[in-house]
Each structure stands twice: as structure tokens, then as C-alpha cells.
Amino acid sequence: MSRPARDFSRYKKDLLDLIGAEIPSSEENRLYSEMLFNIGLLKEEDLDVAELRLLNTAFKELRYSLKIFKSYRSVPKAAVFGSARIRPGDPTFKMARDFGRKLSRKGWMIITGGASGIMEAAMIGAGAKNSFGLNILLPFEQQANAVIRGNPKLMFFKYFFTRKLMFLKESEATVLFPGGFGTFDEGFESFTLVQTGKAKPRPIVVIDTPKSRFWRSALGFIRENMEKSGLISGGDLSLIRHFQDNDRAVGELARFYRNYDSSRFFKDKYLIRLRKTLSVSELEKVNTDFKGILKSGKFEILSDLTEDDQKDPKFCRLVFSFDRSSYAGLRRLIDYLNTL
After folding, report:
1. Which numeric CATH code is attached to 71-256?
2. How far apart are CA 244 and CA 215, in angstroms?
3. What is the pLDDT of residues 37-76, one digit of tens each?
4. When you count CB atoms within 10 A of the terminal residue's CB, does the N or C end of the chain come out lower?
């Protein structure tokens, strides 16, 4: 059943008074009008002050963060998580610092919680110029570290959910060093969203020192108690890659975007943008080796570009009817495409 049409026009004058001019894009006009319409509806919802404060604070946090990140959208970023309690001199601290340095040399920036421990170490390595801090307001542990303190790329959040949204939206990779409940919460958030298709494919990397059993033990628990019991699908764990060497970990992030650029649902199909055009033989191999993720039909190269695609026609666009469940298989396809 379709939703009833909403009369946004009753708020149009208020909207135009707010921004001081006509909105140039009709799509922007529609979205601005809808947001204003929903704000107007709040008066009719009889919400209490606490609920209004929640909505207002969440909106302000998202609006401000989007503004800060806007100038850096063309630069790839990794969200780096790990314990705030790991001290300088610890081998894991040194490894996180080295990781940040090596990743920044590849042209990447990093996003951390901006606190101490692993977050500070990665920022020391990457440098303040290449770092963003998304600091959560807590009564303990989460004060901003010296690297990012006073930096305009340091943002403060009252709510975990707005903070986690920005971590995922503004990054192209998720990197986990050893940590506690917060690290696992943030890591499993990325894993769950990629595994269910609610987030675009991305490299998810877990890193520890060569002598550590932290991630080997954690992944072993998942394999033994979830995968073998059928609580997760076979192959889901392939979405997580474990490294005990920074060069290999950094290489994994860079390699993921070697040929693959991005992907999205396109009408009733799935579209992958590639930097290199597939040859006839390469397309045939894709159709042979990856037919298991097809709902119907076959893999094809899109030639009839949409208006948005025509703005950036240099990419090859692979389209197919995806079964919308085999995200581990989709990752294997991306890995293959990156070898071409």
C-alpha cells in the first residue's frame, strides 16, 4: 500500500525564509521540504521535552559532522578501533602507531574515537593532518588525546548511535586492534551491516602482534560456536581478514580498491563500478565462476548509462541480478575483480 501524499507546500515559505533563496535542485527542494514537514509534525506528536532534546541533539551532531567531513570526501579513510587502556611502550601500541604511519603514506586518512591507547597510537602514526576524532562524551576514559585535541577535525558526540553512523558512513574500511566491549561493539556493527547488505562491501581487518592470540582466539570462538552450529552462514567469516603484519594489513585495504570503486543497488539489479573494463573472456569467467550469487540471468556490462553515471563515464559498470544474501560470495567476486 502506497503512502498518502504529503502536503509539503504549507512549509515552503518557512523553508525559503530559512535559507534565504530558492533551492536550485528540485530533488534538494523535495528533501528540504520533507524534513521541514516532519519538523512541523513534531508539534502534533505531543512528544515530551526529553524526546525533543534527543532528536535535536542527534540532528545537530549529524549536521555538524557531515559539514566537517565534506571537504575530505575524495580521500579514502579507515575507521580504526581498539582499547583506550593500552599504554605507550606496549607492543600493540607500537603496532597501531606503525599501522597509522604506513596507511597515511598510501594516501589514506584515519578516523578514531580520539581518545588514548590504540586511538592515540594510530593518530601519532598518521599525524594530526590525516586524522579525525569522533569523541564520545563519557565520565571516564574518553578525553581527547594530545594529537587531535584542538583540531577542527575533532568532533564530540553525546550519542553512540550518531557516532557509529558517522564512523561507517565516512570510512571505506574497518580496522580493529585488540580492545574491550566497545571495540567488539563497533567491529560487529560493521560486520553485521556488511554481512546483511545494509552497508556497502568494505575490507574488515583485525590486527594484533605476531605473538598475540587475541584475534585467533576470538575468531576461533566464532567459528566453533557460531559457524559450526549454523548460527551464521558458512563463509561469513571470510568477510573478516586477520593480520599480524602491518604491511599485509595495509596492502589488504589498498588492494580492495585496486579495481573495485563502489557498488549499489540499481533498479532491480546490483551495480559494481570498476576502474578497468572487463574483456570478453574475463566477463565469461565471471559468469562461470560466480553464478552462485545470481538470482537469475547473468553478469553484464551496463552500456546505457543513467544521468548520474554520465557524470563519471570512465568506470566500467558490471550489473547483475544479485540474490541479496550471498555477501561472502560478493566479496569473493570483488577480490577476483581486483586481480584483473
Report:
1. 3.40.50.450
2. 10
3. 888 788 788 899 999 999 999 999 999 999 999 999 999 9
4. N
